[in-house]
Amino acid sequence: MNLTREEALALLEAHGRGGAWMCHCRAVADHAAALGRALARRHPVDHAFLWRAALLHDIGRSVTHDPVGHGVAGHRLLSELGHDREAALCASHVLFGLEAHEAAQFGLPERPHLPERLEERVVTLVDFLVEHTRPTTLHLRFESLKQRNADNPFFSQRLDRAHEFARAFMHWVEGEIGEPVEGLFAGQTGGG
Question: What is the DSSP letter of 59?
Fold first, then answer.
């Protein structure tokens, strides 16, 4: 069942209960939409799904702020509500994807949970380019994630791989849109 924009917003509000993380979700949705528009000049983009998935990517933070667990919780929540595409993104945006054995370790179905579609990869990249509500650089965001999650061995060990995936995808996107992704967001404030 496809969510409307209004239904996605209502779902975030109902589960977010005013949490500060909701502002991050809105900022990621706005920036992902901007990047989607830039990519649409050369690629088909499902703009409605892109925005919904970006808005709901962290809905699992209504349950936990664990850096991996929030993706698992979001996957469960949205799966139970019948929103399978958005649920898949909740799981696959964590660390630019989880391999099958990693997914099973966290209680997800034992299969790869990777952002495969263009829209899923855009949301995942943009999530790494927005610190709270403000655009940042990939380098600074990963440094922040390393510092905040130093006590989480699994997450910390996987950050370098996620950084490489994000950097490679950002490089591809920049070739497609003809400008730096970080520059595309420089004039946007997000959080609205």
Answer: G
